[in-house]
């Protein structure tokens, strides 16, 4: 059993090395996303292969290497070809070995079983690109990327790859359009890395220079952690939008700060400051206390609607570094 866990640990490290940096934080609230997260851990193969001690030792021998563990996974998939989680794990395993044709074959099987999952489309397209001799996205990969972003317009990795593909194809204006959509979705560190690429695409397309980023807002910054109650995890869907508001305590007027982002990756942490305000005359920094609210919108609109998911409001004194946690735990009736 120890050898199997070591093999699983090696796979976990490989998968983590394969997963890209902050840009790729696109976990979805679907059953597959949960499976992908679990299978990316150190005991992914252990979970799928089961406990060797409980099996006939003549039929199954505990793997001593990663390759042996993968071979056992392949044998298991012969018996359970409908396991999308197994095919995804096999694809990621082969990707960690840079065995791209084998990774493509595994992701193709997974995609056939779950054709509408955006994350899976992106991984499949990535493997197709890496398996190509010229290092470019083949037509099938481009179609997968476009379909993934059509289904989920804020998919960060999809937007990035489509921008890169368009630049490869000599279409810098379209590259700039995709990367321009991506820029406001990413964190500050990732934005700093993306801006030179976006500026280059705009220059090649003959577009005006990219505006300089706004300076960091003066005044207090609040840190807000958003959690999703486990009982509502199954109600989260692709394309849902998370709104986080800071309002005056009496609820009058527009929010003094608001953020809109994809409803993915819970629990997540964000900040609210004057930079997130809607009206210069009503700033967060002007308030002694605010009421924090969070809502997952099914329509993408800021207003509450039946079926949306929301948290109980929390009041917080406005001070730099003040922090609060909101738990999305009820369905709007």
UniProtKB/TrEMBL annotation:
Q: Kindly state a single biological-process term from the GO annotations of this entry.
A: cytochrome complex assembly
Where would I find the Cytochrome c-type biogenesis protein H Ig-like domain in this sequence? 222-328
The record's listing under InterPro entries reads: C-type_cytochrome_biogenesis (IPR051263), Ig_CycH (IPR056412), TPR-like_helical_dom_sf (IPR011990), TPR_CcmH_CycH (IPR056413), TPR_rpt (IPR019734)
Q: Which residues form the Cytochrome c-type biogenesis protein H TPR domain?
A: 66-190
Name any one Pfam family assigned in the record: Ig_CycH
Q: Does the keyword Transferase apply?
A: no
What stretches of residues are TPR repeats? 84-117
- UniProt keyword list: Cytochrome c-type biogenesis, Membrane, Repeat, TPR repeat, Transmembrane, Transmembrane helix
Q: Which PROSITE patterns match?
A: TPR
Report the transmembrane regions from the record.
Answer: 27-49
State what protein this is by name.
Answer: Uncharacterized protein
